[in-house]
């Protein structure tokens, strides 16, 4: 029986990586590629600030074809939706029928994704939706997931969290009002090892940069 083809909405972080892992474990879909928004002026993953070269290495390790939505900086919502719409239309033309997301509990984000895909021919899938985030964070670590914090919201966390390893020490150090998976945008990560990657990636933490209310840790291939 032919399985439906799917893309995973790929941020390079732990939640999208874990959604891929769960989708593969279910066997319900043939995940054929990853869709990532890249800010063209910087050649970096949007919001996360990760170098595009590291994204490429990560997706090669995940065995996924990269589909990039390139946007300008700054980018209006209208421009973002136009570029994303063109990419989705191409995916439909290529026979893709599902999009996998790593969202956990933000109802407004899920509703936006469902609204944007309505009528396109692609159905959204949320394999880790509603999972308790404390337990989920520890499940990831137990399975061997390795990640670094690449971006933090300075209104929610001190800049010193940028560049830290996502591990149990970090979970212990997070303030009580911070979600352990960063689902409210408190922090973003880059996954360098785990069950969704065929091999680990060697990375090191470079310079830190603060911009637009965020602190970024520049990860480099080691």
What this model shows, in words?
The chain has 222 residues and is of the alpha/beta class. It has 2 domains: 5-125, Rossmann fold (3-Layer(aba) Sandwich), CATH 3.40.50; 133-221, no CATH class. It contains 6 helices and 10 strands; from the N terminus they run E-H-E-E-H-E-H-E-H-E-H-E-H-E-E-E. The strands form 2 sheets. Strands 1, 2, 3, 4, 5 and 6 form a 6-stranded mixed sheet that branches. It is globular and about 45 Å long.
Please tag this protein with its features.
alpha/beta; single chain; globular; 31% helix; 2 domains; six-stranded mixed β-sheet; Rossmann fold; 222 residues
Number of distinct helices: 6
H/E topology pattern: EHEEHEHEHEHEHEEE
What is the name of the CATH superfamily of the largest domain? HUPs
General form: globular
In terms of topology, how is this protein built?
Elements: E1 5-9, H1 14-26, E2 30-39, E3 44-45, H2 52-62, E4 65-71, H3 77-93, E5 96-100, H4 107-117, E6 123-125, H5 133-142, E7 146-153, H6 168-173, E8 187-193, E9 203-211, E10 214-221
Parallel strand pairs: 1-2, 1-5, 2-4, 5-6
Antiparallel strand pairs: 2-3, 7-8, 7-10, 9-10
Could you give a short description of this structure?
The chain has 222 residues and is of the alpha/beta class.
